[in-house]
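ingest -> fold -> write
write: protein_1
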Amino acid sequence: MADGRNNIDRRSFLKNAGVIVGGGAIGAAGIALRPEMALAADAVKSVPKTVTQFRCPICNKDFATFAELKQHFKTDHPEHVEPVTTKLNINGEDCEVLIEPHWTLQRTLLFKLGLSGAKHMCGRGACGSCTVIMDGKAILSCMTLAVECEGKKIQTVEGIAADPKWRPLIDSYCKWDAMQCGYCTPGFLVSAKALLDKKINPTEEDCRQALAGNICCCGTYNRHPTAIMEAAPQIAKGGK
């Protein structure tokens, strides 16, 4: 409903606020409007390419090389599992991270690569807020170890927001208010993108099946298929 004092309604605010990926609730959801697409691209490009800091996660001591860090573990922390270096391909960018072997992909994306789009909510694969695409398939990054992702191609909501082809999907989500608080929206967008990669003219049932693993506490379920189906023809033409 429009506010009589300033004549700004919620939909207009979402479409014109200019929030970006990694910002507040909507920004974190990947609703980056056109002036901010360059910033979304910057987030994708700015992931660290190599490990430059070898810090012990137990005592926070810094070392010049990975070999020195490993020796430190053998000497001072023999009861702990040594950290590992893992090479990942995120949104087309090759990068290397230093992590503990039990770290999930979601945790690695957030704390090592600065990509906050894949959300931590349930932590047990039940809500879909952490969804990313791995080798063309939507997966739950909170249930996937980062070390399992070597040699795979990972796409996050930041990569989708930076790609002009997928602007119609984001615009359609804004048009149909297919979000409320925005926290779960990244997972929905990524699942929708995975669907459209395989089926460019989905039915409502296709959309509901593709989003079946995504939970929205605000209850916006009926708007998602509408937003996806409306965006599909323009995406098929290359978006923008």
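write: protein_2
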Amino acid sequence: MKSLKSIKKPVIITAVSALAISGALFSQSTYAAQVTKPIQAVYNNIKIIYNGTEVPYDAKTEPFLLDGVTYIPLKLAGTALDKKVTWDGTNKRVVIADNGVPIDQSTVTALNNQITTLTQELNTAKAANTTKDATIAQLQKDNQTLKDDASKSSSSTLKDLQKQLNKDYSDSYNTNSDITLDGNKSDITVTIEMTKSRWDDLSDSRRESYLEDIVDDILKEYKDADIEGTVKNSSNRDKLATFTTNSKGDVTIKKLASTLDTSTIQRNLSDRYGTYSGVGFDFTVRGDSSEATVDVYVNSDDWNKLSNNQKNNLTDGVINYLKDRESVSKVVGYVRNKGNSSQIITF
């Protein structure tokens, strides 16, 4: 331990300017006159640690012990805690304040000017965007107007072509048809209405020729058009067939499956072939217009009496009737024994 030193210090706290580690400050007192008093201070190499780091000091600011209390110069403690400590000699006061960062007015002015410039640029950009939006809206409107005008023009031209097609094909092929064109010069939909009986009267080849003639006339006016169409029953507007075309005008017809009047078909087959070459036959039919199955019942002994030519004429006649008269796309037939329904042949 260091030897005791006699130090003269003012008694009033504003003159001593010391901080007690215990947390208590000397009470501030005011006297009419300054008094000096000798004290016994103990210097014991006291260390000050702030956040793990030792705070340096010199001989003038070294902490000391007095009557069991450790004293540290207030300015030393304030510096360690990033506080500003000053002595007000006039009023004999120690003033402690936070250290602040001085604000340079020129910096503030420069920042304000920058904000003003950026705000002006932003407003200019907004105005430009508003102008662009208005321009885009006008262009879209003009484009739609052009499309509408083109559609009206195309529609008007299609109606003229429609009139000509009806004039040319109303009685052509004995169809007594009505033709309607819809769409535009790039995509044209054809609707043809006629009675089912007139459509059924046309063979497959004549149907194809009839539709291809119509398509060829359309392609003469609209060579790049995609054309598809529907044939409808004029009585009830049921679809009879649909068709598509290629760039050469070739037509592909797709027949639509429809319910067959099997009772009528069986009766008609019986009228035609119920007794054939002296042999009795019965018929049952099931399916639809896309595919029908017909069973021909006959006594096996009677069947064997027929020549191959007679057998072929019978089965071919049944198939042709179903395809040509009933518009069945595919026919599957069986000749069966009347006695046990066993299969004799397939045709």
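write: annotation protein_2
Helices lie at 13-16, 74-80, 105-169, 196-201, 204-221, 262-273, 300-305, 308-325.
The longest helix spans residues 105-169.
pipeline exit 0
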